[in-house]
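TA notes, week 10

Several of you asked for a full example with nothing omitted. So below is the full record: structure tokens for the whole chain, then the designed sequence directly under it. When grading your own attempts, check the secondary structure regions first.
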């Protein structure tokens, strides 16, 4: 500004430009602040999602994988979707969306007569404290669907624990337990796919093995 005055000696135009700069200063500050805020918010969102997926990964490592394997092994329609569930690095976002749409149409039925309810009762009973700690984790506020899955598992476990045995159960009780298990299956397989999508994007490997990665050819029951 001083150089401009020394060259042109035009204090009038210098004053106009100075006032213009001052007038636009709040807008410039606002725009810079807005962009900076968006950058920080985006970074915080990524960090929260990373923490959330760590919690989900812990769930699948501790019990989700084993539970999904056992339930899906008792799905009479599993062969219809099994070939689509081998996740590899070639999968794109569109591939995941297509499989997700396919899974939403899958009935997720369970042959309750083949399910060892006593074994699942022992298995889930041994995980009660772990499940409670998961529900108390504030990161789950970001993921209602996963919270719904945990609540479904909790409810099913309560139904099992309050029954001393499972032989000779009335048909209504069997139907209720079957409905609870099928609800868990529906929520569990969708959460599994979402977690596989996260792993494929952030920790890709050549091919993910079945159940825990892909359900499920191993024939075993919860221990």
């Amino acid at each position: 500004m001083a150089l401009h005055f020394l060259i042109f000696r035009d204090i009038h135009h210098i004053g106009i430009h100075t006032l213009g700069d001052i007038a636009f200063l709040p807008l410039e500050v606002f725009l810079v602040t807005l962009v900076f805020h968006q950058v920080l918010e985006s970074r915080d969102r990524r960090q929260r999602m990373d923490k959330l997926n760590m919690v989900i990964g812990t769930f699948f490592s501790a019990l989700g994988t084993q539970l999904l394997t056992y339930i899906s092994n008792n799905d009479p329609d599993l062969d219809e979707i099994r070939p689509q569930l081998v996740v590899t690095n070639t999968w794109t976002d569109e591939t995941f969306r297509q499989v997700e749409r396919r899974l939403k149409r899958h009935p997720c039925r369970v042959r309750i007569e083949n399910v060892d309810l006593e074994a699942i009762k022992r298995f889930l009973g041994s995980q009660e404290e772990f499940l409670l700690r998961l529900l108390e984790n504030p990161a789950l506020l970001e993921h209602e669907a996963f919270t719904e899955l945990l609540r479904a598992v909790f409810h099913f476990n309560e139904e099992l624990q309050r029954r001393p045995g499972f032989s000779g159960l009335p048909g209504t009780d069997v139907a209720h337990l079957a409905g609870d298990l099928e609800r868990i299956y529906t929520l569990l397989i969708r959460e599994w796919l979402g977690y596989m999508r996260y792993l494929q994007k952030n920790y890709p490997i050549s091919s993910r093995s079945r159940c825990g990665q892909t359900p499920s050819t191993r024939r075993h029951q919860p221990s």
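Confidence is low (pLDDT under 50) at residues 1-6, 206-219. Use that as a sanity check on your answer.
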